[in-house]
């Protein structure tokens, strides 16, 4: 089983790990593209104004160019701890047990614009680069074939929780058992619609639950059976195809309410 997560624009600073070593990262087939993208990101950071434009940074974010200037020397931390934001708050990697970390390291990957697919426990520095950052050639052009090839090497269940922009950097193989997950909300009248603000939180909670389960589910049927037993409404998309839909209760108010509803359902 492989669970694919998007990265986040925001990242924790610092870390206790040694500086970046590309050969320590998972998905070694991406090494050549990683080296090229890394070199270009570092080179771009030498021209502060050009980097601000290419990275689409606002005035308050301009200092993030410095992160890319220090990529070879900055301390590292595991990818699941490096990323922050709604999805990662819900996943709450800091509270994982050692056994859960071991399982996450084997089954969870994050789609980085800088490093491509990285394992949950891979040590990475803080950086600034998004799927739509203005590098030439484009990041989609650089990563697409290599990322798709890396995923095609995985013949088990793949659960894709990435956003569309990051999913395009490494498209799923066109086969049974490889699924993109959409998050929808059902209101009190039973109407189902796309879930916007809480989309990332629902994905983080689902990823956390799968990590806590600690079982590498072998197939789509096994995934759906697990979801039903855990109280998640997860099933094939209404319009057919290979997508799956996670339907959650529509909850007004703070994001924490969605977390409470989903956890109480389990």
TrEMBL record:
Transmembrane segments: none annotated. GO terms for cellular component: cytosol. It holds the Pfam family H2O2_YaaD. One of its GO terms (biological process) is response to hydroperoxide. Coiled coil: none annotated. InterPro entries: YaaA. PANTHER family: PEROXIDE STRESS RESISTANCE PROTEIN YAAA, PEROXIDE STRESS RESPONSE PROTEIN YAAA. This is Peroxide stress protein YaaA. It comes from Leifsonia sp. NPDC080035. The lineage of its organism: Bacteria, Bacillati, Actinomycetota, Actinomycetes, Micrococcales.
């Amino acid at each position: 089983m492989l669970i694919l997560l998007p990265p986040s624009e925001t990242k924790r600073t610092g870390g206790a790990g040694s500086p970046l070593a590309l050969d320590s990262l998972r998905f070694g087939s991406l090494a050549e593209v990683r080296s090229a993208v890394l070199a270009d990101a570092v080179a771009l950071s030498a021209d502060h104004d050009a980097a601000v434009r290419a990275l689409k940074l606002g005035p308050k974010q301009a200092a993030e160019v410095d992160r890319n200037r220090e990529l070879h020397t900055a301390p590292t931390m595991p990818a699941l701890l490096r990323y922050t934001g709604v999805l990662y708050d819900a996943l709450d990697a800091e509270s994982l047990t050692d056994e859960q970390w071991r399982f996450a390291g084997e089954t969870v990957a994050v789609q980085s614009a800088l490093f491509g697919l990285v394992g949950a426990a891979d040590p990475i520095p803080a950086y600034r680069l998004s799927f739509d950052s203005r590098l030439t050639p484009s990041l989609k052009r650089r990563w697409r074939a290599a990322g798709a090839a890396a995923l095609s090497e995985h013949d088990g269940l793949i659960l894709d929780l990435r956003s569309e922009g990051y999913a395009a950097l490494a498209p799923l193989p066109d086969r049974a058992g490889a699924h993109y997950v959409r998050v929808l909300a059902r209101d009190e009248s039973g109407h189902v619609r796309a879930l916007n603000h809480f989309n990332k939180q629902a994905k983080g909670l689902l990823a956390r639950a799968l990590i806590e389960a600690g079982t590498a589910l072998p197939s789509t049927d096994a995934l759906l059976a697990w979801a039903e037993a855990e109280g998640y409404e997860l099933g094939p998309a209404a319009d057919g195809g290979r997508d799956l839909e996670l339907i959650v209760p529509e909850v007004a108010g703070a994001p924490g309410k969605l977390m409470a509803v989903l956890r109480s359902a389990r």
